[in-house]
Design goal:
about 140 residues; Rossmann fold; alpha/beta; binds 1,3,4-trihydroxy-5-OXO-cyclohexanecarboxylic acid; globular
Amino acid sequence: MKLLVINGPNLNMLGIREPEIYGERNYASLCAYITDAAAEAGVSCEIYQSNHEGAIVDKIQEAYSKVDGIVINPAAYTHTSVAIADALSAVAIPTVEVHLSDVTKRESFRHHSFVAPIAKKTYMGLGFEGYKKAIRYLTKNED
Ligand code: DQA
């Protein structure tokens, strides 16, 4: 089984970016955490980060028929991108949405997600652990 983890814009700034919301750990720590969670679940996992909407669309399209599950934190594109949602629908790869923070408790413009209706599950407000839960959901069907 092969998973693709996609992180959207500004997640590469973890550790610097609003630590009171996103925590003190940096992006390399998140990648190490995801790699460990995938190894624990016994699956291979590629991690991809981009600040560019079209690059994320390209990556989702490339995953077609190569990847068995997608974990995506679309970051700000969650709330704006029909293109990313359409790409996920097009490839029809089981997808889980993750947010480090609980977007429902933040500004109202973060309350809507274009990805949520396509995702099998959304984890939010759990920090890094949301990624582990997403991996376990896709690999073991665990909530
Ligand atoms: C985020 C929440 C989004 O609203 C925000 O734009 C992000 C990160 C999260 O992980 O909590 O960049 O997706």
